[in-house]
Amino acid sequence: MTSSTWAAFRAAEPSFAESVQSRFERYRHHVLATLRKDGSPRLTGLEVNFRFGELWLGMMADSFKARDLARDPRFALYTNPGADDAMDGGDVRISGRAYEVTEPEAKSRFVEDVKPPEPFHLFRIELDEVVRTSVEGDELVVRSWSPGGPVRTQRRR
């Protein structure tokens, strides 16, 4: 499977990437799915950060989700749906792989900009798929992107 960095996604599909980032930035907390040792899913909350042209996931030191990603980097990330059932702006799901950043220079740059509680784990993501679902008029509109292809749009009534 081909994957892509956030920066490459933004370069390939700037308006779609902007709509996805905007939807994540609307709320602070989102839902992360990782894989436990036995292969079953683990859902946890977390904050996401768009910095330096990339999408980052920061986690408390030795958290279950950090251990899950260190063992198996596959994840799915889902936007916070909001305070009510309006789903204003739709919802977004990103799936891919998360790789821990251990280079002191990269991590210190993040610390300088974000000032997270330390110690912590920092993961940079690579995208396998980005999906945004929204309602436009009387249609459900699903836009999806995978590396190497254009945004695909499906409309359902």
Question: What does this entry look like structurally?
Answer:
This protein has 157 residues and is an alpha+beta fold. It contains four helices and nine strands; from the N terminus they run βααβββαββαβββ. The chain has helices at residues 6-12, 14-25, 64-71, 104-114; strands at residues 4-5, 29-35, 41-51, 54-60, 74-78, 91-100, 120-136, 139-145, 152-156. It has a six-stranded antiparallel beta barrel with strand order 2-3-4-7-6-5. The longest helix is centred in the N-terminal third of the chain and has 12 residues, at 14-25. The model has no long low-confidence stretch (mean pLDDT 93).
Write the layout of secondary structure elements.
Blueprint: E1 4-5, H1 6-12, H2 14-25, E2 29-35, E3 41-51, E4 54-60, H3 64-71, E5 74-78, E6 91-100, H4 104-114, E7 120-136, E8 139-145, E9 152-156
Antiparallel strand pairs: 1-7, 2-3, 2-5, 3-4, 4-7, 5-6, 6-7, 7-8, 8-9
Helix pairs in contact: 1-2
